[in-house]
Amino acid sequence: MEISILLAEQIIAMFLTMAVGFGVVRAGLFKTEDSRIISNMVVYICNPCVVVHAFQIELTDDKIKGLMIAVGMSVIVHVILIVGSELLSYIIHFNSIEKASVIYTNAGYLVIPLVSAVLGEEWVFYTTAFILVQTILMWTHGVKLIGQEKNLNIRKILCNPNVIAMMIGIALFALEIRLPAVIDSCVSGFGDMISPASMMVIGMVIGDVDLRWVFRQKRPYLICMIRLILFPLIAAIAFAGLERTGLHPDAEYILMIVLIATAAPAAAMVTQLAQIYEKDSRYASVINVMSVICCIITMPLMVLIYEILIG
């Protein structure tokens, strides 16, 4: 109960930061296009710094086992999301934007700052598992789904700044190399910027969107219910049962981190890929905006259900 309350408080605080981004665009102080500068800073500087800093911990068997569990659970979650969305498509008839929005979450922007604020910086280490799995799938399955590309773009995967940061972080972790104090201070400083900067971006992106029009759309409610409630609820129940098996001393929080990532809103990257491949990016942004706003209630609710189930 306590963690779900802390999560709700943190999401509300982040929502207020998003409201600032929304307000400065509405006031004419910035344009929506200006968000790309901040977005690039988050993607290419802040997020990689957080990832590298997350691996600056003591190498232990428990940490390695915990990371492997997080990776394994992240793979299983994505398999279920992909297969589940295909099965549901026979009934609901998803288009490519809807299917991608159900499968891929805004884990990069939301999960790292949330986990850092609610559980502590030392737990960010486990968030890298979900982000790594999703990054690889986004640039393979996701690109094929939205852009109908047939060829696998290995270069885009390997050149993704978050993947590079993970490789550096894992190397430092495995070799037990600690960054010098001055460099570590710089890296952690950029990492501290991720929460306000990422939420400012989301707020600025929706700054010129008519929210009344957004919430008058009917179909996105169904997509959001599946993305924010159906699959996260399945994950919460499954993880609660798995936690009781004594899988790992920190299984409760490792599985909770994967659950938080699973319960996150639709990925902003879906909108960006829709723009690149000239799909319906406006519809993608509607789903993204609606899911971001709705997750203020649904994410803490999923964590609360998980906490109740594990007792």
Automatic annotation (TrEMBL):
Keywords: Cell membrane, Membrane, Transmembrane, Transmembrane helix, Transport. Its main location: membrane. This is AEC family transporter. It is a multi-pass membrane protein. One of its GO terms (cellular component) is plasma membrane. It is found in: Cell membrane. It comes from the Bacteria. The chain crosses the membrane at residues 6-25, 37-55, 67-88, 100-119, 125-145, 157-175, 187-209, 221-241, 253-274, 286-309. InterPro entries: Mem_transp_PIN-like (IPR004776), Na+/solute_symporter_sf (IPR038770). It comes from Dorea longicatena. One of its GO terms (biological process) is transmembrane transport. PANTHER family: AUXIN EFFLUX CARRIER FAMILY PROTEIN, SLR1864 PROTEIN. Pfam families: Mem_trans (PF03547).
